[in-house]
Amino acid sequence: MGAGHHHQLYLPGGSMVHRLPPQCKLLALLAFALVVVATPRERFWAFAAYAALLGGVALAARVPVAHMARRMVIEVPFVLFALLIPVIGLGERITVLGLSLSVPGLWAAWNILAKATLGVATSVLLAATTEPREVLIGAQRLRLPTLMVQIAMFMLRYLDVIMDEMRRMRVARESRGFEARNLRQIPVVARSAGALFIRSYERGERVHLAMLSRGYSGRMPMIRDISASVGQWGTALALPAAALAVLGLTW
């Protein structure tokens, strides 16, 4: 499962965060996310403290702010949804800048924005400091379901292959004068999608048969095992431990 290039989300580096074993970072991310979700929405300063903790991790990992900002654009649909909640929400209403907004809706929007933004930022930091194949190794070390890890492994391995084939099909259509200008071209695009699905399915069958012929028995061999020391576990879990301490001060 070796990719010959770095994933576009990954920033190569030699920082302490980069060197931590992936299973430590995965567990730390999960624990931190649980603490964030468990924080009452009224604890504004706690969310500010969580953001400061993530900023410290980003500083230690030497992840530029611009990189974080670009990758967090994925959150825009959630932001738009959250901004609509006060407008369409029920219950007590207040007027803000001439708009009638729902008070429960404002609380719900803040809750979604604060927790989702922290979650996305944590995920971006993980992706920036850990190669995708190492994340899967870490998942194996944490004893996640084997089938789930293998599905993610093959998705990672063949996503670029399928995208390249889709681009070749698009070039072939355009070289024959096709341009998707209006809804009348939908049948052509639909047939291309069907052909891509069939080709991908057939490729999967061939890969599976090739694996069986090489002794595959339902479990992928772990080519490179990554163990973690007590110190590395302590370093990784310092983030959720600090977040938990902040949460404890809010009660």
Describe this protein's structure.
This protein is mainly α and 251 residues long. It has two domains: 16-138 and 227-249, no CATH class; 145-213, no CATH class. The protein has helices spanning 16-19, 22-38, 44-61, 65-71, 76-88, 103-129, 132-141, 146-175, 186-213, 230-236, 238-250; strands at residues 93-96, 99-102. The protein has a two-stranded antiparallel sheet with strand order 1-2. A hairpin with a 2-residue loop joins strand 1 (93-96) and strand 2 (99-102). The chain is flat, with a radius of gyration of 23 Å.
SS class: mainly alpha
Taken together, the total number of domains comes to 2
Measure the end-to-end span.
47 Å
Strand order of the largest sheet: 1-2
Mean pLDDT metric? 86
In short, what is this structure?
It is built from eleven helices and two strands; from the N terminus they run αααααββαααααα.
Name the descriptors:
ECF_CbiQ, cell membrane, two-stranded antiparallel ribbon, 251 residues, mainly alpha, 2 strands, transmembrane, transmembrane helix
Write the layout of secondary structure elements.
Blueprint: H1 16-19, H2 22-38, H3 44-61, H4 65-71, H5 76-88, E1 93-96, E2 99-102, H6 103-129, H7 132-141, H8 146-175, H9 186-213, H10 230-236, H11 238-250
Antiparallel strand pairs: 1-2
Helix pairs in contact: 2-6, 2-7, 2-11, 3-6, 3-11, 5-6, 7-8
